[in-house]
Amino acid sequence: MFKKILIANRGEIAMRVICACKELGVRTVAVYSEADRNSLHVRFADEAICIGPPRSADSYLNIPAVISAAEIANVDAIHPGYGLLSENANFAEVCETSHIKFIGPPPEITRLMGEKEKARQAMKKANVPILPGSDGIIASEEEALEWAKVVGYPVILKAKAGGGGRGMRVVRTEQELPNLYQAASSEAAAAFGNGELYMEKFIEKPRHIEFQILADQHGHVIHLGERECSIQRRHQKLLEESPSLQVSPQLRAEIGDKLVNSLKDIGYVNAGTIEFLMDEDGSLHFIEMNTRIQVEHCVTEMVTGIDLVKSQILIAAGARLRGILPAKIEMPIGHAIECRINAEHPEKFTPSAGKIKTFNVPGGIGVRVETAQYAEGVVPPYYDSMIAKLITHGKDREEAISRMKRALGMFIVEGIHTSIPLHQRIMNDPDFVAGRFDTKFMERFMASPRPKV
Ligand code: MV4
To answer: What atom in ligand 1 is closest to the CA of residue 204?
Structure first.
């Protein structure tokens, strides 16, 4: 087992990893930027090393600085959290050559899944359902026109190196394809340094549903069911839940089994998330895989009772799944919802950095808060705006919602704007409460007149 782990991240996820390490009896090393000197992850780690100026590019993304800190502190392993260096295969490789265990999949797998079209073909080969689309990269406008005829309009062009919606274009007619092909390709080239595109059938109003998996280094893989992540705005998720109302036990078992087989095939290791779109008929289609722990992992933890971050560390240390997990995992146990509390204006979504004056965190039965913030704490303007996650668990969705409503009302943040009032409005929306939503929900919600809460 590791004696000491460096956490190459900040904010709530750095705190989350520190919690797991403390419970495992592993020493922790925080790294921090000059803007995070007074952060809680610095306070609660056993050691802390400043790695540079505030901007992420100069600190948290600076690979030589992170590796130097790891060598100075003499750690056995690095946990990258999410975002930042978590899906950077080069970083994982540098860790390996420095004889530091990277807590995540091997770099080849991260690289494979980063090439979206290769990931698509790998899933297809293992019988995971994928959307109709091109087999491989489309080399020209002419080829794109041919594929679109086969697939049938509307189609969507996506960047092989893509993510976050950049380099994507929806094409509805043959006439508009050439221009949109060029636009997607140049946007992808500018954003990712690679303009290569592939094509899929376009789903108009998809739900976004993802499956959690865990894989050990000995070829054992399990799935932990799904999360519903359709409530998002501009590719930023706002709230997530598990289970999804739309996924029957049969569908969960069918897709889960296929994923387990495909990830065995691929040789996947550690925690991973497989993203699907659900069409209007309720069928799931693979779109992407994320090779990291995700922000919304907590809702899966609540309904499975499994500590995913501890599992990640134990897997990286060589443990077998059957040695660290219960023999039979009952799933899902009740229902969990997570609201992302962002430092931003609840209607305009403009960032709201600054000093927090009051910070009252709710508690009580079925309530969990993940945060690195506190009263008198400062939200720096340099990073992601998420300052806390509020997770509630109940025997069913109704109880999870009523707990969320009461917990949101007891979460007091003064001095900056937060998304708390927005979440309160969503919890009272009849369509949300009835489970009638897809990825277009927030557009409709923000356009509709404000009901009095
Ligand atoms: C799609 C799609 C519809 N049809 N693919 C957006 C980001 C990237 N991860 C995948 N995305 C989409 N791919 C097909 N074939 C619609 C989206 C999409 C979306 C997906 C998940 C969650 C929110 C979204 C918002 C807009 C578009």
So the answer is: 3
Quick: pLDDT tens for 334-347. Answer: 999 999 999 999 89
β 47-52/77-79 pair status: unpaired
Distance CA 449, CA 347 (A): 12
Top pLDDT among 371 and 453 is at: 371
Say yes or no: CB of residue 209 within 6 Å of ligand 1: no
Which one-letter amino acid corresponds to residue 72?
Answer: I
Across the chain, mean pLDDT equals 97
The conformation of residue 283, written as its DSSP 8-state character, comes to: -
CA-to-CA dists, residue 415 to 344, 353, 408, 420, angstroms: 12, 9, 17, 13
**How many angstroms separate the alpha carbon of residue 307 from the centre of ligand 1?**
29
The SS3 assignment for 185 reads helix
8-state DSSP, 453: -
CA distance 447 to 430: 15
Centroid of ligand 1 to alpha carbon of 164 (angstroms): 9
Helix (H) or strand (E) holding 6: strand 4-7
Cα distance from N-terminal residue to C-terminal residue, the chain: 51
Which pLDDT score, from 0 to 100, does residue 450 have? 78
Q: Are 407 and 427 in contact (CB under 8 A)?
A: no
Residue 99: predicted pLDDT = 98
**Per-residue pLDDT at 13 exceeds 80:** yes
Closest residue by Cα to residue 236 from 152, 328, 163: 163
Q: 57: which DSSP letter?
A: G
Amino acid making up residue 442:
M
Residue-wise DSSP of 75-104: -SEEE--SSTTTT-HHHHHHHHHTT-EESS
Check residue 261 and give its pLDDT.
Answer: 97
Distance CA 34, CA 338 (A): 30
> Which pLDDT band holds residue 163 (cuts at 50, 70, 90)?
confident
Strand partners, 394: 335
Catalogue all structural domains in the chain, each as residue range(s) with its CATH number: 4-103 (3.40.50.20), 132-201 (3.30.1490.20), 207-447 (3.30.470.20)
Rounded distance from Cα 324 to ligand 1 centre (Å): 35
140: its two tokens: 């020209």
* Best CA proximity match to 19, nearest among 392, 393, 370, 384: 370
- Rounded to whole angstroms, the Cα distance separating 296 from 282 reads 22
